[in-house]
Amino acid sequence: MIKNLFCTITLLLQFTLLAEPLIVAHRGASKQAPENTLPAFELAWKQGADAIEADFRLSKDGHLVCIHDANTKKTGNKNLTIVKSTLSELKKIDVGLFKGEQFKGTRIPTIEEVFATIPKGKKIFIEIKSGPETVDPLLKAIKLSSLQPEQIAVIGFKEKILLDVKKKAPHLYTSWLCSLKKDKRGKMKPSLDSILKTIKSCQIDGFSSSYNQLNQEIIQSLKKQGTDCHVWTINDARHAKKFINWKIDSITTDLPDKINLKLMQAK
Ligand code: G3P
Ligand code: CA
Questions:
Q1: Whose CA is nearest to atom 1 of ligand 1?
Q2: What is the structure's pLDDT at 203?
Q3: Residue 63 appears among annotated catalytic residues
Q4: What DSSP string describes 99-112?
Q5: Residue 89 forms part of a structural domain
Q6: What ligand is nearest to the CA atom of residue 22?
């Protein structure tokens, strides 16, 4: 209990004492390079991103591979379903060509390959795209890596998976991705009350939602409860400025360079 409390306080301090929001490169610098690939992550670091965001799924033979969709239809030159394919089958797919001839030959990276790009002091937001079976291989990959816990945030839409991560690795920061919808009467779903309850019951450190769904009231309520607040996916500096004024903790963007530049000019 005391150990968990200590972990929580340390984790929150690591993320909230920063004066400016972290700039998180969404699937890497994905406007200019093929999403969730090494060229996109390398470009994000070159452009000065504080963190990268990357999506992970389990292959048929238990490897964590970096890809958003459940298959390679959108980004690959051949369509394979990730969960039904082995790593060696997936490695044959070209996931660069769809973005331009200059990226021809780019392959789906494994989590180990993505980790290897992360410079000292920079962070990764690891999004779990597949089910609860992802947790153990993920924790193993983190343990075998040279990353420090403060470099890692585990994120996902399924709060129960985040609870499992927290139970097995209380030293890791978790953040819940939540789509905020409106019901027929215009009431927000899930309600703010149920969001706050879920965060407490699943021992979640941060909350994240889309820039066109998140508002100041939600951010303030979360912060009052001691929960960090993150926003995705902002590619326009005007939106970025609004969220900076609202004391957002991180901004996820496809254009880490542009957002960084505008933030600097705004000083
Ligand atoms: O960082 C949150 C964001 O990545 C969630 O949406 O669909 O891009 O994975 P998606
Ligand atoms: Ca994602």
A1: 232
A2: 98
A3: no
A4: G-GGGTT--PPBHH
A5: no
A6: 1
